[in-house]
Amino acid sequence: MDIKPIKTEVDYHMALNRLEEIFDAQVGTPESDEADILGLMIDEYENKYYPIEAPDPIEAIKIRMEEMQLKQVDLVNEFGGKNRVSEILNKRRKLTVEMIRKLETRLNLSASLLIKDYQIR
């Protein structure tokens, strides 16, 4: 096992290639240990150089709705009416604190994500 820190793009691509080679290594083998370490190093490098920004609150709601296979009508209680659901999801109206509290529970989304500012149309 010859592991070195990932400092450059070349190092990063070499680490990805090596991980691909040993990804299915049997647990408990040196290759498995190497894959675990490479995975951690690759993750750290990607978090530093390829950060993924959180979606705006409305996009987060839409993503979670899709994951939970929910339709707009399923969130009427959280938004306070059919028309209100449409207005919020089409960014014509902002979320209220009460909506955020209900959505945090129903969709298991953090309030800190839902309170972020976003532009309305």
From TrEMBL:
Protein name: Transcriptional regulator
Lineage, opening ranks: Bacteria, Pseudomonadati, Bacteroidota, Cytophagia, Cytophagales
One biological process term in Gene Ontology: regulation of DNA-templated transcription
UniProt-listed InterPro entries: Antitox_HigA, Cro/C1-type_HTH, Lambda_DNA-bd_dom_sf
Gene Ontology MF, one: core promoter sequence-specific DNA binding
Organism: Cyclobacterium qasimii
Chain ranges of the HTH cro/C1-type domain: 61-114
